[in-house]
Amino acid sequence: MKRLDISEVIFRVLAYTLLTIFALFCLYPFVYAISASLSGRAAYYTGDVVLLPVEAQFEAFKTVMLSKRFWISYANTLFMTFYGTIWALGTSILGAYALSKKRLAFQRGFNFFLVFTLWFTAGLVPQFLNYRTTQTVMTSMGIMDDKWLVVIAMGMAAFNVVLLRNAFESVPYEIEEAATVDGAKETQLLTRVYIPMSKAAIATVGLFFAISRWNGYFWARTMIRNRNEWPLQVYIRDMMEDILSQEIPSEMAYAPNSLVYAMIVCAIIPVIIIYPYIQKYFAKGVNVGGVKE
Amino acid sequence: MSNQPMVKPEALRLSDDAEKHYWRNVGYKIIKDWRLYLMLLPLLLIFLLWRYLPLYELVAAFKMNDATQTVLNRDFVGFHNFQSLLFGGDAAEFWMAFRNTFLLSFYGLLFGFPIPIILALFFSEIRSNGYRSVLQVASYLPRFVSTVVITTLCQMLLSAGSTFSEPGILSQALSAIGLISKESAEAGLLYSPQFFRAIYQVSGIWETAGYGSIVFFAAIIGISPASYEAARIDGASKMSQIRHVVLPSILSTITIMLILRVGELLTIGYEKVLLLYNNYTYSVADVVSTYVFRRAGIQVGGSPNQAVGSAADLINAVTSMLLVVGANMISRKASDTSLY
Predict the structure, then answer these.
(1) What chain A residue is nearest to B305 in terms of C-alpha separation?
(2) Interface pTM (ipTM) of the complex?
(3) Which residues in chain B come in under a pLDDT of 50?
């Protein structure tokens, strides 16, 4: 057993204490949200709810669950997350694969084309005008759903492509050479060699895309004209403003705020369910050290 | 070119040949690897259509404000919009927003940047792998929650009180320990300008600090135990171990993350501000993007002015780019680490 210096002991005690406090600080709002959504009206108003539900009721959740618009917006979010991730991840894998190749003519130029968008972005008004134009063009092509605009035009991130490209670059060239000798074509190289060897990076980037889709608010709010196509985030915000601005009849078992908390809980449940499975990828797959133009 | 007396005709012909050869080679490469270019095409199109085409719309900044016309057909007005923005009728609001953007980001950097590093140092100190995973899982969680949920939580936890209701639980707690007065808790913290920055920063740390520590933690556990041993044999205290062993080893990671952060100084978090601010807190909360959002009337009426909005966008974009390039240059000079 190594003897610890006194300063090391102090540091370790400090680490345990402060990290435990920090972790509780991170979790508390979620715990409170669950408790508040399950607490009775009077208990919520008097501030008795601190950690656990008081005067438990399930009416608030029931109201959320029975709301048709809630499920419509949930379905919209699933739609945009699913197709949006496939679209962004698919094009990124193909593109990043090509960009990782030294034999690609103008490789540096293409890479610069991508990375430049990390430095210089046009801003809100140009972006807005651009999406407007896209919307007009899509409508004239017969695509009426703004959902598709969100799926196709938004959410691409150069940073994610760079992460994928780095992963592909780190696959040893000898393996590609061997596969080529065995007669592998470009597509086979990608699907049989590069994708299987970069699973962790692909999972990470796919998750980045999926989470930004699931969480996206601003452009969906701005560009989607039909309320029935709103994703969950836009719906939650709208409902919160709505609920807090009106009086709920006093015979209700819950405070209006409990309804908002219930919605929040419903919105983060899927994230919480898949979170334990995905978080390990984040700890491993993020390789920032290799980001180079 | 043939008039240049210094170059011998033979040499010239040779370089001509080389050039022709080069282009023939490129053509050959492209034909041989055509699948590669086909794979690249969709990605290039996405970036071209939705990242580069908007750059063209920035021309609106130099043109008349006329929403009925496409940007192409508007009349040029030179720097009129910039003048109005920087010195004229819009100047007061714009500079306020510019200042707020800078301050919110600067405080974010000041508090938000060191905390993940400290957390990572602490995480590396936890011996039990199980307990460390529990702590890490808990502290990464807020990062996966949407901005809407975070701001809604802020609004709920800090909500105003009324005749029949206590204020939000966090306001209650803060006034109970004496950090804020009972009156401000009752009035709702988000409705008074003096608290906005603190709320923004604390919720920012809550959201990102745990997740931000991953990169540094990975760098710290990569340090070989031998270097610690050497330092300990020399009798180094924990603080000097951190200073002389840990920090130098993770310096390149810190530099890269710092460059990334500095580059984002002027672009961060408009969604969060947009969802958190209100009429009462414009003076401290309005950032350039939210100012543009309202001025250009992207969503609601008022007297929308896309031209002035675009001008503000352009100023923001150019300043951001200078920041990234500048930060990158300084770091390359100072430490041989550069991101781009």
Answers:
(1) A125
(2) 0.88
(3) 1-4, 301
